[in-house]
Amino acid sequence: MKKFFLAAAVVGLMLTGASADTAKEVEKLAKQYGCGGCHAVDKVKSGPPYRVIAKEYKGKPNAKETLVKSILGGSMMKWQKIGKKYGIKIKMGYMPAQHGVNKQKAEKIVDLILKLDTK
């Protein structure tokens, strides 16, 4: 029984570390591409936090495609209603197209966002 609890604790620590590493990677890319002006992992800025984005889209069909499209093409008033669902107020009504981000980088950003721990 002690071995089981020890194994569970180790797995829990590994998952926590992975989540922290993922959050750091997201923040690094956000800074590199200027996303950090409107987004953060856990803090509401003018746009939704990445962790809330992950909660909204994780497990949904076409989640990656939808988010990549938002990064590359922008979006309008998307988070005003969704924000209420999570108890947050989104200040900005649009996200401009991110012309400095190519599709490959957008996919990497989205993959990292969707890997964030949402519990």
Distance between the termini: 26 Å
Helix content: 55-70%
The whole-number mean of residue pLDDT values reads 84
Order of helices and strands: HHHEHEH
| Distinct helical segment count | 5
CATH class: Mainly Alpha
Output the CATH topology: Cytochrome Bc1 Complex, Chain D, domain 2
The structure class reads mainly alpha
Number of domains: 1
Major sheet: arrangement of strands: 1-2
Please name the fourth-level CATH homologous superfamily. Answer: Cytochrome c-like domain
**How many strands, which pairing sense, and closed or not: the largest β-sheet?**
2 strands, antiparallel
Q: Total number of β-strand segments?
A: 2
Strand content: under 5%
Which stretches are poorly predicted, pLDDT < 50 over at least 5 residues?
Answer: 1-17
Proper CATH architecture:
Orthogonal Bundle
Round the Cα radius of gyration to an integer and report it. 16 Å
Cα shape: globular
Detailed description of the structure:
By secondary structure, the protein is mainly alpha-helical. The chain has one domain: Cytochrome Bc1 Complex, Chain D, domain 2. Helices cover 60% and strands 3% of the residues. The chain has 5 helices and 2 strands; from the N terminus they run αααβαβα. Strands 1-2 form a two-stranded antiparallel sheet. Helix 1 packs antiparallel against helix 5 (103-115) and helix 3 (63-73) crosses helix 5. The chain is globular and about 30 Å long. Residues 1-17 have low confidence and may be disordered.
Brief descriptors of the model:
119 residues; Cytochrome Bc1 Complex, Chain D, domain 2; two-stranded antiparallel ribbon; globular; disordered N terminus; mainly alpha; 5 helices
